[in-house]
Amino acid sequence: MHKTIFTLAAAGAAVMLTATAALAGPLTVGAIVQVSPAGSPFPGADADGPPCNGVPGSAQTGRNFPGAEVEPWVAVNPANPANLIGGWQQDRWSDGGSNALLYGYTLDGGASWQLSDVQPAFSRCTGGTAANNGDYERATDPWVTIAPNGHAYAMSLSLDIAQDANHAMLVSKSTDGGKTWGPVTVLKRDTEANVLNDKNSMTADPTDARYVYAIWDRLEFPQEQASPRAGERAVGYRGPTWFARTTNGGATWEPARMIFDPGQIDQTIGNQIVVTGDGNLVNGFNLIYNVKNAHKVRGMNVAVQRSTDKGATWSGVTIVDKLQSTGVSDPTTGFPVRTGDILPSIAASGQNVYMVWQDARTTGGARDQIAFARSTDGGRTWTTLSYAINTVHTTQAFTPAISVLPDGRIGVLHYDFRNDNGGTPLLTSTWLLHSHDGGATWTETKVGADFDMSTAAVAGGYFTGDYMGLGAAPSGFHPFWGVADGTTAVPASSILATTAD
């Protein structure tokens, strides 16, 4: 769904890319595995929420969708590639967040998945209390990353909506492949009604297990309350980038701090860090300028900033390209579909850094496609190779996730509506694009069966997530995505996983 932007008036060795198999055929897709539980795991969950969140239904806002599992993310264990860990929102709310974030793991390369025996206590429904830093009604924006020594880190934006503006960025650590999760650490907590820490991500440094980086945007609103916007990819009055890191494997975290301030009534969103082959950091994000500025750009921009000292200091911003998404909707009814339209995705391999995003330029603004840009010098300079790497341009393509295999092959997971023939259902397909020549040419492979997007939870539009996951291991790509599988009367969705090589 396109988000209206506020205006002033509205207040390590490099992986070498090979030129072989430029026109390679489809990848082989393994068995599709359902990762998430069937229905809500929380007793008594209904449209007013479950008792475990501690808030009577009459005090809640919005509608809860029990069994709606959305916004998946996945990571591959570099110490044991057969071990993957994924997380998602469980029981999504219409106005922000979910009853909990759940995490699951596999020890056999994705052939089978189990829920973590001890979940991170990011909200009350997974054991959060005031004593363990998890006393929150809801949680959103799940993320997981795994260090070279196999230690995993999960992150959450946890929040209260019914009671007050209380919300925080939280982290938990697992040392057993995601089977159990340890104590919750607070990176940043706020109770002001006009502030929202939003859209977090986290990256374990693949070159040094001591370092893990957390990053997010911090939205400041002049008058309105921010908390009801939680998890809604809010656009605020001012939105600098904030950052926190551990340098000792999660034993302690440095105080969170601002690393980029775009200025009054401007903001960032979708910050995500990757690490290049020489150990430098590249943060990719959407930089939103609401007025003309020194760069003479306005609107949404794909941008990066770099650090050569593990995040101690950061460079200025380099603009990769404009981000010209027109948003996504049901082509028959016009009902909005909430997608990753304002969130670029980034990946790195050696000195090659890649970004994808939704862009409608090739269709004259009519339909979002998948744009692709590449840097071959560690994120210093960029070239946009295509504004539509997806293969069918007569339909809307959306929510891209990018990853790179150890051999340099690039993968991009995305959805489109090519098989929808009007009316109901809203048939949605999932595709894995892959390139063997650095992004010059692409081949696609279908992943899973079509599903009816109109049976998904409604949260700013039909919603399966602002993002989805694509892991990369020597065995191949590991798509980790959401599908709607309810009815229009009882919306629901599930998280699926597979392997493609």
What's a quick, concise take on this entry?
InterPro entries: Sialidase, Sialidase_fam, Sialidase_sf. This protein has no helices and 33 strands.
Secondary-structure map:
Elements: E1 33-34, E2 64-76, E3 84-93, E4 98-106, E5 114-115, E6 138-146, E7 152-159, E8 167-174, E9 184-190, E10 195-204, E11 212-220, E12 241-246, E13 257-260, E14 267-275, E15 281-289, E16 299-307, E17 318-322, E18 328-329, E19 336-338, E20 345-349, E21 352-359, E22 369-375, E23 383-386, E24 397-404, E25 410-416, E26 427-435, E27 443-446, E28 451-452, E29 457-458, E30 462-463, E31 469-473, E32 476-484, E33 493-497
Parallel strand pairs: 19-30
Antiparallel strand pairs: 1-33, 2-3, 3-4, 4-5, 6-7, 7-8, 8-9, 10-11, 11-12, 12-13, 14-15, 15-16, 16-17, 18-19, 20-21, 21-22, 22-23, 24-25, 25-26, 26-27, 26-28, 29-30, 31-32, 32-33
Largest sheet: 5 strands, antiparallel
Q: pLDDT average, as an integer? A: 92
Structural class: mainly beta
| Shape designation | globular
Record field, number of beta strands: 33
How many helical stretches? 0
Distance between the termini: 32 Å
Q: How big a fraction of the residues is strand?
A: 35-45%
Helix content: under 10%
Flag low-confidence runs.
1-22
What is the alpha-carbon Rg in Å? 20 Å
Please supply descriptive tags for the structure shown above:
mainly beta; five-stranded antiparallel beta sheet; about 0% helix; disordered N terminus
